[in-house]
Write a structure and sequence with these properties.
A: alpha+beta, 2 domains
């Protein structure tokens, strides 16, 4: 009898603990993610930092209806795709193993497009006098979301922002030239430093 | 004497309640400090609720053009302010130039703008609710047919 009472007591304590944990988990909001943009211009001694909660971007975008942006979608003219079936191309990249897909080496420019660890990577090196270097790393999930719009000539930017919220910390874009450095990244810190 | 005391108590209570109500939306703070030899200091601390109340006295036709321009952006403004209010404190924009520093932050329930340049420093703090009420009133103003 005493053993049974003890068992019931332990089960009760366990149940109480589990329910407390469940309530705590439900009450804790998902960690906010932030989009950071940092531009440094060494020649002018200027710097610009912009920090934006992704939830704010996701809420604002569908409300903007101006120009090519409407309901979180950007309309792109057929000419911008240059006749390339981007969806078919992305589908091929998605199903392909990690690899370097495009490597162009020219006298004044190098371009490299690759897939690595679930990211689409684009490197551009301009060999001009400014020596501009562009690195773009976009998670494939975000690329998929971007091209998830029903219409072929639309990019679903709102869906891409939502996908970014679920992605881990990542540096999305860096642009470096002789004087200027641009960095766009996401993380869970509200400040850019 | 007792009656006089009661009247005084009612007046004081009403004044206190009124002050509490007026300050319920927070305070708007404006501080300007010039760095010139003859420096001027301006400091204004006013209940934020006075701004939307004051907007009632601006003739609707005077706000017509602003209303027309702001109206299409109201869903965006509402969404932005709602998210801003719900979120934590954050530095939204930080611009540094050799002779100027601009900082836009969300601090508590307010949006704070600090500008420091070689001539002066400006600090403006306004509660988000007051900003929202004021913008709503501007948007609600009817357009001036002669504008």
């Amino acid at each position: 009898m005493q053993k049974a009472m003890r068992t019931i007591g332990v089960c009760g304590v366990l149940a109480l603990t589990m329910s407390n944990l469940a309530v705590t988990a439900m009450a804790t909001p998902a960690t906010e993610r932030y989009l950071h943009v940092k531009v440094d211009d060494a020649s002018k001694g200027e710097s610009v930092n912009v920090n934006l909660p992704l939830s704010m971007a996701a809420a604002i975008l569908p409300t903007v209806n101006k120009g090519t942006l409407h309901n979180g979608h950007v309309t792109i003219g057929e000419a911008d795709f240059n006749g390339v079936d981007v969806r078919a191309l992305l589908d091929a990249i998605r199903t392909a193993p990690d690899n370097e897909f495009v490597t162009v080496k020219e006298k004044d420019q190098d371009v490299r497009v690759a897939k690595s660890n679930g990211n689409l990577i684009v490197h551009v090196l301009d060999k001009g006098k400014d020596g501009e270097k562009v690195d773009v790393t976009i998670p494939m999930k975000v690329v998929d979301a971007l091209f998830s719009a029903v219409k072929n000539n639309e990019l679903d930017v709102a869906a891409a922002i939502r996908a970014l919220s679920d992605a881990g910390d990542a540096v999305l874009v860096t642009v470096q030239d002789a004087t200027e450095h641009v960095r766009i990244w996401i993380d869970s810190h509200s400040a850019s430093e | 004497m007792v009656l006089l005391g009661k009247v005084a108590l009612y007046i004081a209570g009403t004044a206190l309640a009124g002050a509490g109500l007026i300050c319920s939306e927070g305070m708007i703070e404006v501080k300007v400090v010039e760095k010139q030899p003859e420096a001027h200091h301006v400091y204004v601390l006013a209940p934020a609720m006075l701004v939307p109340i004051g907007m009632h006295f601006v003739p609707s036709r005077k706000l017509g053009r602003a209303a027309t321009e702001i109206h299409p952006w109201m869903p965006t403004i509402r969404a932005a302010l709602e998210q801003l209010r719900a979120g934590g404190d954050i530095t939204l924009v930080d611009v540094r130039e050799p002779d100027q520093h601009v900082l836009v932050t969300k601090d508590g329930e307010s949006v704070v703008v600090d500008v420091t340049d070689k001539d002066e420093t400006v600090h403006v703090s306004a509660p988000i609710r007051a900003i929202e009420s004021t913008i709503e009133q501007v948007a609600a103003a009817s357009a001036d047919p002669h504008d």
